[in-house]
Amino acid sequence: MTSSAPITPNSPANTQQLSLRQRLVYFAIWAGVVLLIFFKPVLNLVGTSLHNDNVSHTPLIPFISVYLIYIRRQFIFRRISSAPPLCAALTTAGLLFAAWAFFKLSFTSHADALSGYALAIGFLWAAGFALFFGLDSFRSATFPMAFLLLMVPLPDFFLDRVIYYLQSGSAAVAEGVFDLFRVPALRDGFVFHLAHVNIEVAKECSGIRSSLALLILALLVSNLFLRTFWKQGVFVVAGMVIMMIKNGVRIATLTILAQYVDPGFLYGRLHHEGGVVFFLFGLLLMLPLFMILERSEKSRPITTSSPAT
Fold it and tell me: Which residues contact 250 (CB under 8 A, 6 or more apart)?
């Protein structure tokens, strides 16, 4: 049975209980031990993130989760205790994911194995949080805990499906732009045939990296600034749609420039380095919706004392 007692950073700790600072130290040790246990998979994950755009965001996710907990520390740690049953359940899940990852690494996909190890690390960190801070704190930190899932590389079978849908959506948007500006183009699946150029919306053109970045940003903004759950959902879904819109606009823009100005636009700097420009375009598309949703929210204090729903 989980017991809880209100403890604040400024109040003296009960002699029968660990202080908040002690619990933070023990949790840091727990998290460090987990990293040591999975030292090799962690190195592989970090190394993969350096040259694979699909997981380039992975090393940043734990730091963002820690920051979210920090700015809400007064609310999250209002009532600290210990939740051994939840810790045991999460530890069991983490060990199962680790066993699954070991099986995957031994017999099938290296990428899928990294996904399993990342899940194992996330669940074990969550288990330590439940053990040292209790059920009330765990509930209050639901979003930062769930946010850790974003450090998990998408398994190959799921990543391929996501990329396919991004290709399909981007191709549909590009076709719409061609029609809007009356650019003659014959579409054959993911291939567009124009008078002087042919382009294919390949996997590399799916925009998966910037799409993930936009999704992460939408999740953070909605959680930090929007209190109503349906408004958070609307903003995140809008971000997912805008992922495909901005990528389709990028494909159409480069193609039109290649068709009427210079074919080199398909191979030049705007193609390889212009992702930032179109990412900012995506943010601009999201800004009006955010302003509408945010204005409809009542004024509230900074989220260091109360979490978003």
Answer: 207, 274, 275, 278
Question: By C-alpha distance, which of 161, 189, 162, 154 is closest to 175?
Answer: 189
Exposed e or buried b for every residue in 257-269, given b needs 16+ CB within 10 A? bbbeeeeebbeee
Q: Which amino acid is at 140?
A: S
Alpha helices by DSSP H, listed for 38-155, are 39-51, 61-71, 73-76, 84-107, 110-140, 142-147
- What is the spatial distance between Cα 228 and Cα 299, in angstroms, rounded to a whole number? 13
pLDDT digits (tens, 9 = 90+) for 120-174: 999 999 999 999 999 999 999 999 999 999 999 887 788 888 888 888 998 999 9
- The label of the residue with tokens 């990528």 reads 247
Domain spans of the chain, in order of start: 17-153, 157-295
- Burial, 271: exposed, middle or buried (Cβ in 10 Å; 0-12, 13-18, 19+)? middle
Contacts of 190 (CB under 8 A, 6+ apart): 167, 168, 171, 200, 201, 202
Residue 211: count of CB within 10 angstroms of its CB: 24
Helix (H, G, I), strand (E, B) or coil at 192: strand
90-115 pLDDT per residue, tens: 999 999 999 988 886 655 567 778 88
